[in-house]
What we know:
8 copies of one chain form a homooctamer. The first copy, chain A, has helices at residues 3-14, 20-28, 44-48, 61-75, 85-94, 131-143, 159-163, 166-171, 185-190, 213-220, 235-250, and strands at residues 32-34, 39-41, 54-55, 77-81, 99-101, 106-110, 120-125, 147-151, 174-179, 197-201, 227-229. By secondary structure, chain A is an alpha/beta fold.
Amino acid sequence: MSPTQAIALLERLRAGKTSAQAVLRVFQAAPLADLGFAQVDTHRNLRKGFPEVIFGSGKTPAQVVDIARHIWRREGRVLVTRVLPEHARVLRRAFRAAVFHETARCVTLERTPLRKRPGVIAVLCAGTSDLPVAEEAAVTADVMGNRVERLYDVGVAGLHRLLGNLTLVQKATVIIAVAGMEGALPSVVSGLVSRPVIAVPTSVGYGASLGGLAALLGMLNSCASGVTVVNIDNGFGAGYAASQINALASEKP
Amino acid sequence: MSPTQAIALLERLRAGKTSAQAVLRVFQAAPLADLGFAQVDTHRNLRKGFPEVIFGSGKTPAQVVDIARHIWRREGRVLVTRVLPEHARVLRRAFRAAVFHETARCVTLERTPLRKRPGVIAVLCAGTSDLPVAEEAAVTADVMGNRVERLYDVGVAGLHRLLGNLTLVQKATVIIAVAGMEGALPSVVSGLVSRPVIAVPTSVGYGASLGGLAALLGMLNSCASGVTVVNIDNGFGAGYAASQINALASEKP
Amino acid sequence: MSPTQAIALLERLRAGKTSAQAVLRVFQAAPLADLGFAQVDTHRNLRKGFPEVIFGSGKTPAQVVDIARHIWRREGRVLVTRVLPEHARVLRRAFRAAVFHETARCVTLERTPLRKRPGVIAVLCAGTSDLPVAEEAAVTADVMGNRVERLYDVGVAGLHRLLGNLTLVQKATVIIAVAGMEGALPSVVSGLVSRPVIAVPTSVGYGASLGGLAALLGMLNSCASGVTVVNIDNGFGAGYAASQINALASEKP
Amino acid sequence: MSPTQAIALLERLRAGKTSAQAVLRVFQAAPLADLGFAQVDTHRNLRKGFPEVIFGSGKTPAQVVDIARHIWRREGRVLVTRVLPEHARVLRRAFRAAVFHETARCVTLERTPLRKRPGVIAVLCAGTSDLPVAEEAAVTADVMGNRVERLYDVGVAGLHRLLGNLTLVQKATVIIAVAGMEGALPSVVSGLVSRPVIAVPTSVGYGASLGGLAALLGMLNSCASGVTVVNIDNGFGAGYAASQINALASEKP
Amino acid sequence: MSPTQAIALLERLRAGKTSAQAVLRVFQAAPLADLGFAQVDTHRNLRKGFPEVIFGSGKTPAQVVDIARHIWRREGRVLVTRVLPEHARVLRRAFRAAVFHETARCVTLERTPLRKRPGVIAVLCAGTSDLPVAEEAAVTADVMGNRVERLYDVGVAGLHRLLGNLTLVQKATVIIAVAGMEGALPSVVSGLVSRPVIAVPTSVGYGASLGGLAALLGMLNSCASGVTVVNIDNGFGAGYAASQINALASEKP
Amino acid sequence: MSPTQAIALLERLRAGKTSAQAVLRVFQAAPLADLGFAQVDTHRNLRKGFPEVIFGSGKTPAQVVDIARHIWRREGRVLVTRVLPEHARVLRRAFRAAVFHETARCVTLERTPLRKRPGVIAVLCAGTSDLPVAEEAAVTADVMGNRVERLYDVGVAGLHRLLGNLTLVQKATVIIAVAGMEGALPSVVSGLVSRPVIAVPTSVGYGASLGGLAALLGMLNSCASGVTVVNIDNGFGAGYAASQINALASEKP
Amino acid sequence: MSPTQAIALLERLRAGKTSAQAVLRVFQAAPLADLGFAQVDTHRNLRKGFPEVIFGSGKTPAQVVDIARHIWRREGRVLVTRVLPEHARVLRRAFRAAVFHETARCVTLERTPLRKRPGVIAVLCAGTSDLPVAEEAAVTADVMGNRVERLYDVGVAGLHRLLGNLTLVQKATVIIAVAGMEGALPSVVSGLVSRPVIAVPTSVGYGASLGGLAALLGMLNSCASGVTVVNIDNGFGAGYAASQINALASEKP
Amino acid sequence: MSPTQAIALLERLRAGKTSAQAVLRVFQAAPLADLGFAQVDTHRNLRKGFPEVIFGSGKTPAQVVDIARHIWRREGRVLVTRVLPEHARVLRRAFRAAVFHETARCVTLERTPLRKRPGVIAVLCAGTSDLPVAEEAAVTADVMGNRVERLYDVGVAGLHRLLGNLTLVQKATVIIAVAGMEGALPSVVSGLVSRPVIAVPTSVGYGASLGGLAALLGMLNSCASGVTVVNIDNGFGAGYAASQINALASEKP
Lengths: 253, 253, 253, 253, 253, 253, 253, 253
């Protein structure tokens, strides 16, 4: 149950359309579904505005399906990240609604997609190999109710690829800049716009890229103001934070 | 000249209150003031929404005053960070308007303070030693036109200090969570709210804190969604990004 | 032979129920069983209160069985950690008594289980992926004669999962807190109780988790007093130390 | 107010020696004393069994005195660690009761020292340069009500220094082993006893000691079971944890 | 004696203008001047094209003067890098010809400056704090006989500062790009030109800049082809390599 | 289209051999070929003097063929690095002209090979295991129009192997020195010649070689002047930079 | 040809048993056998006292056989380290004399084994998992003509295993101490003897052992004088150095 | 009392020149002199062949004098390393015999210097800044009874400096090679001789030298067989180990 749904329920009580008992029962439900191996945080949508997201990596397909079932029933909206093809196959067998985003390595289930907010989240990436991370960010932002525009393979070694698309970048409410290797893209982008830039380092590279640490350190030391950073390859985290920010932009002050 | 001022100027042209020549002259000015040792980016306010900020550390007091003078003349608003007492002394002698924020190690100059935006930026810190970084964030957010609420010394080893102030935290538009040592504060805070949380690791600690790296790594690995991170001790960067986000919240969609 | 057995033997001598020669023979036995590739420390139970534990990783199934046989004969109690399914299979074929704890990756053999001590060791973990490490700790503590209570998936991103089980945590004599990623659980737990907390970082995470180093550093820098730390993924070490501490609690002062 | 004092108060209520109102007033007191720059956790003694400890490093002498005054009034017992001579001087001027432990870099204030518990905490260190850390551990354990025995300069390069004092080590309830450089002392000690060993790495060394990281890593990888570790130079943490463990040993099961 | 001088000497022999004995004496001189604490490599000019350069840091002023005297007598050209003001003072007292380049922290002595080669070495730096390193590169390249053009404070957060000077950059034979923090400047520059770019990371920054490691790693992982890197703050090395390259450009093929 | 081709086209216009319209059309072509997953930088040859190079690692064979086709059509020259046998197989099926350099892990396509420049690039490597990296450098330099001489297995543990081939090394215009383990080769080589030395650390080694970091650090700290460094295993980057330098040497000043 | 053989040859010349021409031919042979992919250092026996050793890892079986054949023909003695079973199989097919030391992962070929020197090299290891490294050291020392005594599984967690074998350790000329995890064995051993101790860290361990770095750092920081260290897992290097030292001990002064 | 002295004493007993009681008294003396802050290991000479060495760094001058007095009385031979000028001043006032080796930062006291052993220890260093470490090694080896030859400033950037002194290096029994920066000297030296080479990395360098780690890693990865390594700047350790090895060379087999 999202905050919006909770407020609607309380409004129905005020309007005499439901009984206090019925409302009480809803809020009395324990904020946990104990599955033995996991305690599903059923309270999260109310608290955070989006149901608990399932991190597929390291869970068996059966475990993922079990947790997904609990969230699906209560919320009608599920996001599973870092799925292997095996996870995707089993999820699609268990849920008709399951959509597998292959490059993004995500599965989504939506009873009714969320209404898109007015602003735009731009997802940029520096190279072709950064696509899985960029797509994870894009799919996350999309399923959380945001319009997403993608601009891929615009690394700083060929500045005209970025500068030629400046309008798209400048009109976005929030920008997610994904890059591996030296991770310079967010600095250059942030120097050009006044909107928040979320930088996502990727593990793309070899040798002294140290599995993405070089890009991470570069982004943390960005000489451009307003860049914030998430963990290496954490496309989901960037999409989630961008959605939280974009939600602010579309709320009435 | 901020974007707002530029738009006002163009509206005056449309309204016939100024000549095209006068407008042209304003935009023709070179976007750089070359001081020899520095190229002041006089175009930054128009592009980013706030004039270039002076990083005091490593500059002589005379250099800081020179750069400040250029920005002050054009913009009527200056922020100098990481100042030593010597910088502050010289700046106050050079500018009547200079205000020294001692704990924050900042000097601000404002001809007319910016109108405060509707939202609130909450600045939390875990311990007393994190104050300079937290104050740098607070002063930055304040001078950029935001209302700021401070909640200090609320580290996770005494959860009731945080939980007892939950209302303040939950009503904020954006939260800046500053912590050294293990840096757990942002995770706990982010689990409790639906708003963006910007985490600032500090170099507070010793031994295995590795000058703030432990806190930085902890924050990057936060199990709570929506946390983004800036460099160790980078209160300014957090305040700047928080202001950009809060600005979105107060724009009309 | 455990210290208790040794004291019993000496008491029997004092009571005239055995001869000095018989006692001498027992203590004259060399404190080593030389298997060529390993020197089994047969003296360890007398010195440390529990027989040598077999670290399965990197040993062939045959080697593990050989060492286990020596300890089994003398002590009637064997703990093998970090076993692969292949180790477990061969051990179960060699010993009827062998029990395979699959999630914990341990095999135990007990002629007669130890009497449980009065106190309780609570084993907490932050996420589902931390289970193997938490179970290794739990199985170790259990086979060493302690009552164990498990509380899993109570990471700090959903504080109510932990706070709702505070009684269980507060009644424990010793607490083992297992967490990967930013490793904040031990700090929060230790702030709530007056008992010793043993923190176990896990290698759960990716990117800047650096194979568990982020969690390890976080725990070493805990702002809560009384937290001590073991190696990444070292559930066994935590269970062992917790048992030593709990043994103190149940001794007469 | 310690747990013992709280229970005494409640017993007095049950015995009719005080009124419910008086008791209520005590518990109603806010668990925080807000000093502006710090929120003193006045609830900590009740929750953790010992009042909040003041970490002197990075605080001004005036701040330390302010916080100490609040704790002193409520608890009659104060421990300040990592004090500079200047802190010590000002504290001794402010409080007659202040005792400066110079090598330990601690100041203690005690209205009435705590009754010593039955067990013994042994504090061992490997070399002369480890003394400040070892003494911080010893002073902490002492002020928390434990008997402490010191055994210094017993590094593993001269084993007879340790083996010649084995009785002292073996009779201790808990052992704190402090060592810099390669940090091998805890492994050797833990191989010889069945009691918990808390290892404290120190920053003593040069070059590849990496400020104590070599010792820390060595201790975390100890091949001896039952060793737990605290941060580099964290004598206080070791003394605190040892006291928590020793307290268990002297409680009735 | 430089290669040019050696060839001239041999041509004079061929032309009958000097005797074989005289030439022999020159080449028979031992390639070392043994000063006790140092073995001056008097053969270096012949082998490398420039006399041995004195690294001032860690040497006493007297040692620097002694070594400088040997080189000055033989070569008439001395470069001392990393000098403290004290070194400069003593060198100027010892040699009339000594010139102190304060920002560059270098002293040069030249009997007759080298003829400038045709090409241009462009020295770029990202920020004001990078100046000492950039100047060390510029002074080194200059004293080795190259024309140098400086373009300072052109970091990627304000791209127009760089793009507005593109002609200068594109006409250079070799480019030295100096930057601290995230070190993105060389990538952007190298994407715009076909000439060799030598990247110099600086220790400018704080926190996660790790004393220049972030910039170093960024430059090593540059996505732009043709970037080579020298040690952190090694302006001298960059100037030296640039001169070697520029020398190639002015030789006849 | 390379700069040479562009200049030729413009000369043809001046000579009246083509129309302004035809020239315009050529330059009007968008500098990007958008393949969806990649934006091929078709402008690069003009800007950098060589077409975009395809980094095979992490791309599917189909993606590599698609990108190669675009470059092949426009430029008649393709270099693909870091190919797996599978990439090579598919490329050879798609293009008759494809040549697979197995040790170098490269595929090249050339309609007409470039005319060789006058200078020589010497590629040295320290051990047999460094061959793949050395060959990547050699193939890159060769396809970019340079004459290449190889000198392999000349590590510093047997100096006579290097000193016996000094003539070859000294006659080269540029030297690429490839080494793993301690990476001492470039220092020794650079001490013997006056030409630029490009050092390539390799990941050859084990234990404290840290995947090539030991060699990288060694090369960055070279005591010999004029050494510049590229990323670990980056043979391509060294070959590319060496070609840029050698091109300078063969241009008319 | 070893130095002994060379001296014997020269003595035969002096004794008139061979001609100067024959001797000359021997020394005129080029000190390299160029195999294309490798330059076998045929001079090494003369210079170092033992023929070039083949590091099998990363070479194809065919390459290993080729190199081995050259050394075998000239020297009648070959040591191949780090062989895979495949290497061993092919070597045994190629050479009747090939002996595969499975635990040590070495193959040796000896026409006539070297006469054993008088002293003894003791090889100690801490745990069963360290055996491959310890055996590599033992096989190397053995083939180089030394008597070797092994003492395995004597880690410091059970000191009596080491102390019970002190005589063996104390009578050795040189001691090789192999250990993973915290690597404390060399410190303890070196404190007990006056002979050189060569420490070999192994990659045995997990988590904070960092692939053997913890053991390496521990050994480098040993508080016992006279410990020198080789690379992680470098049993060969330790055996080689121990043999060089033992050779000194058996030379006449 | 050294082993030689002990054997002499026992021979005197056998020869009837002393009584068993007198001998017993000597051996009964406790192997420790307890100074409160230190336990002087008075047994060390007997066990290790040289009295305990005093590491001055971090000890007060008074402590150093106290420990020195105990060793001086029993042994007539004292070595204090890492002394500050203040230590030296106080030691010279306390002991007439004290000699201050300024560059080596050592003080020695010798009643009668040890007879020099036959072999030679060669101490090489790469640069002038490595002198303090090289001298510490040389002074240590000298006071332990070895003849020492120094060869300084022979870094690999000017190979002729080393190759021109090859005879000196080749005639040494043991070689100590001291180098900072890339630390390549030991590899080159070890490739040229058959004697043991002890490598000492120094903290000389800046930036990516990481306080000597680059040199340390380089030496551990040496491609030359027979190199063993000590801690960064540990000249004493190298001198000590070299003396142990040289002692072997001069013993009768």
